[in-house]
């Protein structure tokens, strides 16, 4: 909005020429989202606590340490989504279709998560929205976004999959590309959701991963940098750096209240939305496979659940004391801050490896 209102005035007021620069608007998006989160956070938490009473239902079969968290309100993702959305509307070029495709997934998945959280809180149990309805909603929003992306991108990219470490290799998936794109978005969303089990555990890895994709977005959307790094140039994708910046600012603001001991949980409202944001940006920037590296922590958590379920169904035995993986280490006696910080370190290492793919071509 500010871009459209103020940049046209640059001829009369030179200072407004700043809005031409993506880096300036990206910085503005970080600060705006963070400040909004700091401002609305306390009031939102008070309202959630008054409305929810006992807060998020705690699983009886979960780690014993979680019982003391009874009464902590959930749905803190509202804080993230509100801060992020306002910031994006203020600082992004709203004529860019990629902005709307990513925001559709983000807010659509946030709505699904909100419904799930609402049912859990109102019914005072951990079931929430049925898995089939949740998946159907995710398919709908991701499918529309995949169609928008495929219709906007150049013909040499719109149905193609880029392979990391290979500068000229593109696999044409044809009609299967939308299916692949949908799977990336849904998989990323649910992976972040599974990781969100301890205070601050998902928030910082999301900040790290989104920070990496802010760099990817900026580079693939800039012809000079894309050509120099021998990555595929995606016209208009650079604008997604503004969304990434808004997510980072909103998550930093949320982390202030989510740091151990958490005053609020993001809930499915936040985790499904943030995972969807990551997945949709990866699809636009043609870095879907690199997402598996950058978001490797989320992949590990998801794989631990798959292995646990498969092992129990096939052999009747469990590989882990409890899944997802962070609960396994809780059961082993690790302190919650120890698990969280070590997982943050893993997320950072994997992000650096993901960044290295820019030169290993």
Structural summary, described in words:
By secondary structure, this protein is mainly alpha-helical. It has one domain (20-160, 173-285). Helices cover 65% and strands 2% of the residues. The protein has 14 helices and two strands, in the order αααααββααααααααα. It has helices spanning 2-6, 22-52, 77-91, 97-123, 131-152, 177-195, 203-220, 223-229, 240-258, 267-284, 288-294, 296-315, 325-331, 336-356, and strands at residues 160-162, 170-172. A two-stranded antiparallel sheet has the order 1-2. α2 runs antiparallel to α3 (77-91) and α11 runs antiparallel to α14 (336-356). The longest helix is centred in the N-terminal third of the chain and has 31 residues, at 22-52. The radius of gyration is 20 Å and the shape is globular. It starts with a helix and ends in a 5-residue tail after the last helix. It is an enzyme of class 2 (transferase). Belongs to the glycosyltransferase 4 family. MraY subfamily. This is Phospho-N-acetylmuramoyl-pentapeptide-transferase.
């Amino acid at each position: 909005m500010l871009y459209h209102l103020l940049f046209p005035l640059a001829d009369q007021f030179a200072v407004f020429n700043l809005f031409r620069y993506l880096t300036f608007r990206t910085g503005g998006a970080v600060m705006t989202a963070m400040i909004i989160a700091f401002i609305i956070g306390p009031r939102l938490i008070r309202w959630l606590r008054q409305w929810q009473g006992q807060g998020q239902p705690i699983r009886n079969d979960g780690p014993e340490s979680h019982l003391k968290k009874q009464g902590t309100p959930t749905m803190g993702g509202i804080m993230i989504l509100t801060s992020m959305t306002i910031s994006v509307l203020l600082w992004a070029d709203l004529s860019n279709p990629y902005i709307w495709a990513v925001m559709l997934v983000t807010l659509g998945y946030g709505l699904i998560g909100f419904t799930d959280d609402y049912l859990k809180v109102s019914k005072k149990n951990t079931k929430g929205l049925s898995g089939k309805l949740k998946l159907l909603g995710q398919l709908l929003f991701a499918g529309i976004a995949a169609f928008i992306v495929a219709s906007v991108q150049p013909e040499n990219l719109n149905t193609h999959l880029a392979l990391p470490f290979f500068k000229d290799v593109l696999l044409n998936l044809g009609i299967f590309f939308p299916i692949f794109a949908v799977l990336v978005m849904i998989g990323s969303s649910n992976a972040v959701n599974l990781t969100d089990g301890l205070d601050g555990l998902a928030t910082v890895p999301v900040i790290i991963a989104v920070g990496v994709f802010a760099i990817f977005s900026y580079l693939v959307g800039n012809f000079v940098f894309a050509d120099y790094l021998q990555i595929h140039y995606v016209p208009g994708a650079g604008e997604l750096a503004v969304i990434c910046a808004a997510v980072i600012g909103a998550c930093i603001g949320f982390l202030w209240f989510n740091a151990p001991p958490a005053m609020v949980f993001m809930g499915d409202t936040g985790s499904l939305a943030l995972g969807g944001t990551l997945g949709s940006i990866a699809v636009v920037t043609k870095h879907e496979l690199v997402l598996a590296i950058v978001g490797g922590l989320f992949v590990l958590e998801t794989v631990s659940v798959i292995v646990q379920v498969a092992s129990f169904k096939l052999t009747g035995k469990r590989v882990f004391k409890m899944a997802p993986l962070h609960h396994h280490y809780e059961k082993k006696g690790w302190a919650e801050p120890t698990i969280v910080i070590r997982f943050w370190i893993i997320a950072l290492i994997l992000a650096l490896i993901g960044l290295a793919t820019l030169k290993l071509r």
